[in-house]
Amino acid sequence: MTRPSLEFMPTAPDELTLRLTGEWRLGSGIPAAADAIGQLAALGPCQRLRFAADGLTRWDSLLLTFLIQVVNHCETAGITVENHGLPEGVQGLLALA
Fold first, then answer.
1. Residues 46, 40: contact at Cβ < 8 Å?
2. What number is the average pLDDT over the span 11-31?
3. Could you say which DSSP state residue 45 is in?
4. CA 64, 68, 72: angle at the middle one, nearest 5?
5. Helical segments of 5-97, H only
């Protein structure tokens, strides 16, 4: 099992990409959404958040729970979220949430 991890990477002025790697599943020690939101806020002004999940190996509903919290925060903060970098199944389920 590969531990789940995340990293915020600046990709353009006022734009960040959240890179997700590893197995985001029950029992794998998923990072807390509150910690990720704190990191996002500490990085300064951001107008757009993108995702990169090329290193994501396996996931379950805990990934969705994490992402919903991050996306909800972004919507409240006026940050545009682009989820095209997530697996298609995750994109579809987020659209339903």
1. yes
2. 95
3. -
4. 175
5. 33-42, 61-77, 88-96
| Residue 14 one-letter amino acid | D
Q: Is 70 exposed, middle or buried (0-12, 13-18, 19+ CB in 10 A)?
A: buried
The pTM for the full model equals 0.93
The 8 Å CB, 24+ separation contacts for 91-95 are 93/64, 94/64, 94/67, 94/68
CA distance 50 to 24: 18
Cα–Cα nearest to 18, from 65, 73, 81, 60: 81
CA nearest neighbour of 24 among 65, 70, 67, 56: 56
16 three-class SS? strand
Helix-, strand-, coil-residue percentages of the chain, each rounded to 5:
35, 35, 30
pLDDT in tens, 38-81: 999 999 889 999 999 999 999 999 999 999 999 999 999 999 99
Residue 1 has pLDDT above 80, yes or no: no
